Amino acid sequence: MSDVLEFAGVTVVRGRKTLLDGVDWQVKEGERWVVLGPNGAGKTTLLQIAGARMHPTRGMAGILDETMGKVDVFELRPRIGLASAALANQIPEQEQVLNVVVTASYGVTGRWREQYDKMDERRAFRLLDAWGMSTFMNRTFATLSEGERKRVQIARALMSDPELLLLDEPGAGLDLAGREDLVERLSELAKDEDAPALVLVTHHLEEVPPGFTHALLLREGGVVAQGPIAEVLTEDNLSTAFDMPLSLKHDDGRYTAVAKRA
Ligand SMILES: Nc1ncnc2c1ncn2[C@@H]1O[C@H](COP(=O)(O)OP(=O)(O)OP(=O)(O)O)[C@@H](O)[C@H]1O
Ligand SMILES: [Mg+2]
């Protein structure tokens, strides 16, 4: 198995603030990671580096057997699928859903070339279909509900057939049914041997899809624990990460956590 991500001492400093502090992390082919931690822990910063959108201030970030700083990021980025709120904000509201997905193969948002390969359109349609969104293909992005937008963004992130898929809080803003639908779909994706390596960022244990194999817990830019999911998602580790005594339940592959009563 080759390394999808190999971070050694990855540190990000902005002004006086250390956003990430000496993070060592390895993600291998076939692994499905969940990254958990409170607001401001550095999760999005970590994904920005993993997605070749940001350079570490110090340390080494290996991505798909390339090293940040020594590789043309414009060649690396198409090999990585990324779905995040920041990226969604760049999608023009009037963009048609099919185009939102198709344009990903060119690493742009906003359709700027009229001649796309029919093959690309067919692939975009198949991805929308797989995520239950093909009947929406002619709608504009602006008219979609939050849950529908999330599914279109994931289809978009998969368009370039990436070797690594990064999802930053795909469950944010979804209602209960929407969340459960997403968890189920991500669980299916996790079980698909042909799917890329996955990294999912969330605050909510309820959003951890069954089938995910590894977890990384962050707090204030540092790693609290990482490794096989069952070893990492413990009451002790989670209580440390969220700085609050938590009571954890694990049932049928799903996790829930609530504050421990005194
Ligand atoms: N350019 C910057 N200058 C100073 N601080 C920054 C900068 N960018 C981010 N930060 C801070 O770094 C910390 C980590 O941010 P990050 O977005 O990675 O957190 P997060 O774990 O994704 O949080 P959330 O769960 O709220 O999305 C935050 O406290 C944020 O305010
Ligand atoms: Mg974030």
TrEMBL record:
SUPFAM superfamilies: P-loop containing nucleoside triphosphate hydrolases. Keywords: ATP-binding, Nucleotide-binding. One of its GO terms (molecular function) is ATP binding. The keyword Repeat does not apply. This is ABC transporter ATP-binding protein. SMART domains: AAA. Residues 5-245 form the ABC transporter domain. PROSITE patterns: ABC_TRANSPORTER_2.
